[in-house]
Amino acid sequence: MSTLVIQDLHVAIDGKEILKGLNLTINTNEIHAVMGPNGTGKSTLASAIMGHPKYEVTSGSITLDNEDVLEMEVNERAQAGIFLGMQYPSEINGVTNADFLRSAINSRREEGDEISIMKFIRELDKKMDYLEMDQEMAQRYLNEGFSGGEKKRNEILQLMMIQPKIAILDEIDSGLDIDALKVVANGINQMRGEDFGCLIITHYQRLLDYITPDHVHVIMQGRIVKTGGPELAHKLEEQGYDWIKEELGIEDETVGQEA
């Protein structure tokens, strides 16, 4: 079992504090969902875990299996087993999808134990079929010319091929139609197990209709203010966030715009 532990995390952007003492523990074999109004720190949390240079961690800690994540470079965090599925995946000209994936897989393996071409191709073909992706996408440049739905499926393809310990999926459902949403959800569900944990950042219940989370957390004012099971997401869908604000005496939730 692996564990990602976030303790008293404070994060600022351009000197403005966004996260204000956030605590969260994610174990493998668990799926966590994070919800909350715009601007409360959801995407900031994802970027801080992965080490985006724009996000300054001013205090607190992040550890993976007792190793200090904040002391790692971005590539070291990925090699340690942390994966970020981005809301807006980047396009990279000149690097094919297949070459990127094979390099990413080999970066997490011991030197001299690289995945063979034949095994890689078999696994890639199988997972692309599962995600209903055209096989020619393997030889296209990474995300270049992909539609929004194709980019999101490609993020899940990367997840399934790389097999990280902990995945952070930042609004992986945005812009997806119902059919694509089901395919993406199926890919995430196939990953569930003792060697995989996931943090899903989402605004909507609809993704959680297909992926049942073990824990649902609400972020407000830069902290997790409420935690529950799947029923919490349903209540938020029906009633919004005002009842939580009233319960906690929060008058103004606006904390600034997230990047």
Automatic annotation (TrEMBL):
A UniProt-annotated Pfam family: ABC_tran
GO MF term list: ATP binding; ATP hydrolysis activity
Domain ABC transporter residues, every copy: 4-246
Keywords carried by this UniProt record: ATP-binding, Nucleotide-binding
UniProt cross-references to CDD domains, sorted A to Z: ABC_FeS_Assembly
Entry superkingdom: Bacteria
Matching InterPro entries: AAA+_ATPase (IPR003593), ABC_transporter-like_ATP-bd (IPR003439), ABC_transporter-like_CS (IPR017871), FeS-cluster_ATPase_SufC (IPR010230), P-loop_NTPase (IPR027417)
PANTHER family found in the cross-reference section: ABC TRANSPORTER I FAMILY MEMBER 6, CHLOROPLASTIC
NCBIfam families noted in UniProt: sufC
Family classification: Belongs to the ABC transporter superfamily. Ycf16 family.
Full protein name: Fe-S cluster assembly ATPase SufC
Gene encoding the protein: sufC
